[in-house]
Amino acid sequence: MGTDAATDTPHTDRLAAERDRWVSSSVNGRPFFVERAEGARLWDVDGREFLDFVGGIGTANHGHSNPDVIAAVRTQLDNYLHQCFSLHSYEPYVDVCRLLTECHPGDFAKKAFLANSGAEAVENAVKIARYFTGRDGIICLDNAFHGRTLLTMTLTAKVRPYKLGMGPFAPEIYRAPGPYPFRGITSKNAIDGLHRVFKNQVDPSNVAAIIYEPVQGEGGFLPMPNDYPMRLQEIAAEHGILIIADEVQSGMGRTGTPAAVEHYGVTPELITWAKSMGGGLPISGVTGRADIMDSVHTGGIGGTYGGNPLSCAAAKVAIRQVLDPNFQDAAKALGARMRSRLDELGDRFDAIGEVRGLGPMLGIEIVDGHGQPDAATTAAIVGHAFDRGLILMGAGLDSNVIRVLVPLVATEADIAEGMDVLEQSLLSATKPAP
Ligand SMILES: Cc1ncc(COP(=O)(O)O)c(C=O)c1O
To answer: Most buried in the list 40, 171, 332, 339, measured by CB within 10 Å?
Structure first.
């Protein structure tokens, strides 16, 4: 156990006190200070080793400290740091746009635009959709998470902690039911709900876009039912409405494919990307049909740091890896292994109401004896896992879903160890089925 030599205090305690003193308490996070990270493992400032099943909330699909990403960033460091693409062009930005469009399914010409964060990508996708269609309305779903800026917070569904006291919200945002079969909301219910939105909230002729996550992340790791994205696409096409697929969390190999929408055979006009796109560096993007992406007047979208060269150098490597069929196969195999172990746990523990997900983007919904959301037990499981060296995280409107976003380079041994710890943590927090 590392200690501060002068005071004999664990480094974590000293840094936690510093954090309390200097960092706004409004920022979430446990007093856990990372010193080193590699693959699916983290080491803290006191030398404790952790298995990371959350991967920076989906930013570490390629593994922490991916050596190819680091090498590319080192090379870029020797060339130049920042330029501002709206001022001087540079090749890595163009390369990333090309590679990103390769991740966007659909047999049509595509173009891309780069920004810094997921929220910024979503903001820009909405701006582009409004400009192209000349319409104001945006429809989002229950359980959605699209970010924390004013517009994206408005699109986000969970009031506490994301929206509480932060209004007034952006106008012209309408919310439709999101499919949640485990809670009785089927694909059909959600589509019926969308038609009700058209009747009692906004006429479809005033809707620019419908935005949805193919697998809702923060909302509870809810994969869209098989038929839902295609139904949505057909309805949108009927009314001249664009579809924005928010792949910030579900994209970049997280479900085994570059874009999660590929599982559904749909071809959204616009897709937003971020998180693992940068292999650990901050970068995001919007891809879309070329005519839509070109529709905004020059200068209508942009930003100082969007597509920073260091982030582009990292993103080039990260996206190439995701496009590699071997990477995708390994991710799918990892997902299948985890799924079968989670299903086994689901059979054994009454507290597991449902195991769900797509490929290696997996969640388990924790319920009480009456099948109701059980946030306290969820927090207990996450806490027990942390004490045993496994990083887990909750999700869901009721904070009762444990999400698994393990780096896709995790070894079989990593997964087996993590699953054992999860099982022990479930045992500590609950009682198994008789
Ligand atoms: C689906 C989705 N969209 C947008 C965002 C916002 O991304 P960022 O935090 O980079 O702004 C997130 C973040 O978790 C997300 O999961």
So the answer is: 40
Domain span at residue 54? 32-65+325-429
Helix (H, G, I), strand (E, B) or coil at 137: strand
Which CATH number do you get for residue 108? 3.40.640.10
Q: How far is the CA of 136 from the centre of ligand 1 (A)?
A: 22
Residue whose C-alpha is closest to residue 38's, from 61, 64, 60 = 64
Residue 359: CATH number of its domain:
3.90.1150.10
What digits encode the pLDDT tens for the residues 300-327?
999 999 999 999 999 999 999 999 999 9
pLDDT in tens, 230-267: 999 999 999 999 999 999 999 999 999 999 999 999 99
Paired with 361 in beta bridges are 358
376 within some domain? yes
Distance 433 CA to ligand 1 centre (A): 36
Tokens of 171: 């106008």
How far is ligand 1, taken at its centre, from the CA of residue 147, in Å? 5
- Residue nearest atom 4 of ligand 1, based on CA coordinates: 146
- Per the listing, tokens 């769900």 go with 356
